[in-house]
Amino acid sequence: MTLPVSSDSGHVLLMLRDLFDNAVLAWGLAACGVAQLSKLAVELLVHERWRPAVLFETGGMPSSHAALMTGTAAGVGWYLGFADPVFALAAALCLVVLYDASGVRRAAGLTAARVNGLPGGLWEPRPAAVPPEPEAVLQPLKENLGHTRLEVLAGSLIGPLVALPGLALVGSPLPLARVFTHTLPQAVG
């Protein structure tokens, strides 16, 4: 069985161009980036501390995964129509990720917090046939894995609020990037 292949799909550069020209993906990722950057603002305003490490951590307010999924699903609906079966698939995947973030991943984080709260003597290596690696046994489990429902809701709102205006007003960011790459060297030089 052979898959249908377009005339330019064999050329790697053309495939990369098509990937970077995918406006729905670009604006979904932009929504994810906005949500992730806003974690830094939340850290500063709510916790009154400057901690750039929050940009590389999971969990927290707002959910960047929720922003990515809702922004991408909204973009699929915008381009193909909200009655299209591909939008239904995007929306279903989006709901799975949102449920997972506030349900399964959050429960795993809460479980990790309880395990980390157990007395320290439980984690000392015991004689066994194969001795465990000490650093693997003594490290605490990561607790901030998932999101509260409010964090998921905030991320879910950021997604379409970034993606839909981007799609409606700019479309694909590739032509915009071309303008910047052609004008930037002239402005600098």
Provide structural commentary:
By secondary structure, this protein is mostly helical. The chain has 2 domains: 21-103 and 150-174, no CATH class; 104-145, no CATH class. The protein has 8 helices and no strands. The protein is elongated. The N and C termini lie far apart (54 Å).
Supply the key terms:
single chain, 189 residues, 8 helices, 0% strand, mainly alpha
Brief rundown of the structure:
By secondary structure, this protein is mostly helical. Helix content is 65%, strand content 0%.
Structural class: mainly alpha
What form results from the Cα inertia axes?
A: elongated
SSE order, as H and E? HHHHHHHH
Total domain modules: 2
Strand content: under 5%
* Helix fraction by DSSP (H/I, runs of at least 4): 55-70%
Produce the secondary structure layout.
Blueprint lengths: L11 H9 L2 H24 L17 H17 L4 H18 L1 H13 L17 H5 L10 H21 L3 H16 L1
Helix pairs in contact: 2-3, 2-7, 3-4, 3-7, 4-5
